[in-house]
UniProtKB/TrEMBL annotation:
One of its GO terms (cellular component) is 6-phosphofructokinase complex. It is found in: Cytoplasm. Homodimer or homotetramer. The record marks G103 as: Important for substrate specificity. SUPFAM superfamilies: Phosphofructokinase. Mg(2+) binds at E102. It comes from Brevibacterium epidermidis. GO terms for molecular function: 6-phosphofructokinase activity; AMP binding; ATP binding; diphosphate-fructose-6-phosphate 1-phosphotransferase activity; fructose-6-phosphate binding; identical protein binding; metal ion binding; monosaccharide binding. The gene is pfkA. Catalyzes the phosphorylation of D-fructose 6-phosphate to fructose 1,6-bisphosphate by ATP, the first committing step of glycolysis. It catalyses: beta-D-fructose 6-phosphate + ATP = beta-D-fructose 1,6-bisphosphate + ADP + H(+). It comes from the Bacteria. Its EC number is 2.7.1.11. This is ATP-dependent 6-phosphofructokinase.
Length: 341
């Protein structure tokens, strides 16, 4: 069997480890051959690909980014499924493994269900917002980077007796903010799932200050502040009309300073959370998901994706990952609040 592999959407620590797991398992166990497709669906639509061997994936488990490149090209652009069939036939490609997040998996699932293409998936996002998998690779690295950054910012905050407002990624969910905030001992954590008034934020910040602490506020980029109808997006929208989140920390810091009288500073971590080497946990998870995806392709389980359930890698429907966002549940929010202030 000849299998095409692509990575699509935002980059994520662990993508290269997935590619390595797919290729090594596919070649050693199933005697498959592989084609690396450059820049996601763009490479398939524009016939931009190369034969991929075990030599191409050596030493990749600890390397960030993706050797295949990525883009946000939509699979129904530039000829869509008909063009894909043409390119796949020209290269003798029997099936595809699509590694991506919500948009990628939704598109791949549609291509299977409506077009009959042979595709299996691997869920990817630092946001940890995909359904039917306990965790996505990249999330552990992102929360670890955010935790280290908060630890570093705490020392300068304490030196100057300031409040630090640290903005983390996560789009419409607060998993990174919750985990990094709890790990770093934040005095307030603000997430899209749960509205919080300025009075409550001020109470938490003032309480920490009154105990001689430098208040640490961790806010997810998708948090909607009191009085706003939508998320803060300093950068507007991208070329596809998708909101570029970011800037909530820059809004909150002066508000906190005005209300509490405590000098406040904002730091936006941004793409630092996507870059660099994946953690050991993400390297192992990525590798296991990649190997499982190779098995799914070999056995013709089209429309399925590899998923983490507990400590086991299982097969689930790709469509189930994008049916709804996996938000932070209420009990996790209530659990964390005892630590605030």
């Amino acid at each position: 069997m000849k299998i095409g592999v692509l990575t699509s959407g935002g980059d994520c620590p662990g993508l290269n480890a997935v590619i390595r797991g797919i290729v090594r398992k596919g070649i050693r166990t199933h005697d498959a051959s592989f084609v690396g497709i450059r820049d996601g669906w763009r490479g398939l639509l524009e016939d931009d690909m190369f034969d991929m061997t075990m030599l191409d994936v050596r030493g990749l488990s600890g390397r960030g980014g993706t050797i295949l490149g990525t883009s946000r090209t939509h699979p129904y652009e530039d000829g869509g499924p008909e063009r894909m069939r043409e390119v796949m036939a020209a290269h003798g490609i029997d099936s595809l493994i699509a590694i991506g997040g919500e948009g990628t998996l939704a598109g791949a699932s549609r291509l299977v269900q409506e077009e009959g293409l042979h595709i299996v998936g691997v869920p990817k996002t630092i946001d940890n917002d995909l359904g039917n998998t306990d965790y996505t690779f990249g999330f552990d690295t992102a929360q670890s980077i955010a935790t280290e950054a908060i630890d570093r910012l705490r020392t300068t905050a304490e030196s100057h007796h300031r409040c630090m407002v640290i903005e983390v990624m996560g789009r419409n969910v607060g998993w990174i903010a919750l985990h990094a905030g709890m790990a770093a001992g934040a005095h307030a954590i603000l997430m899209p799932e749960f509205p919080v008034s300025f009075d409550q934020i001020a109470e938490w910040v003032t309480s920490a200050k009154d105990r001689g602490r430098a208040p640490i506020v961790v806010v997810a980029e998708g948090f909607v502040p009191e009085g706003f109808d939508s998320q803060v997006a300093d950068q507007g929208v991208d070329s596809r009309g998708r909101v570029r989140l970011g800037g909530i920390a820059n809004y909150l810091a002066p508000q906190i300073e005005e209300i509490t009288g405590i000098e406040s500073r904002a730091t936006i971590l941004g793409h630092l959370q996507r870059g660099g080497s994946p953690t050991a946990y993400d390297r192992v998870l990525s590798t296991r998901l990649g190997m499982a995806a190779a098995d799914l392709a070999q056995h013709g389980h089209w429309g399925k994706m590899a998923s983490l359930k507990g400590t086991d890698i299982v097969s689930v429907e790709m469509s189930s990952a994008v049916h709804s966002l996996k938000s932070v549940p209420l009990h996790r929010w209530e659990e964390a609040q005892v630590l605030f202030g």
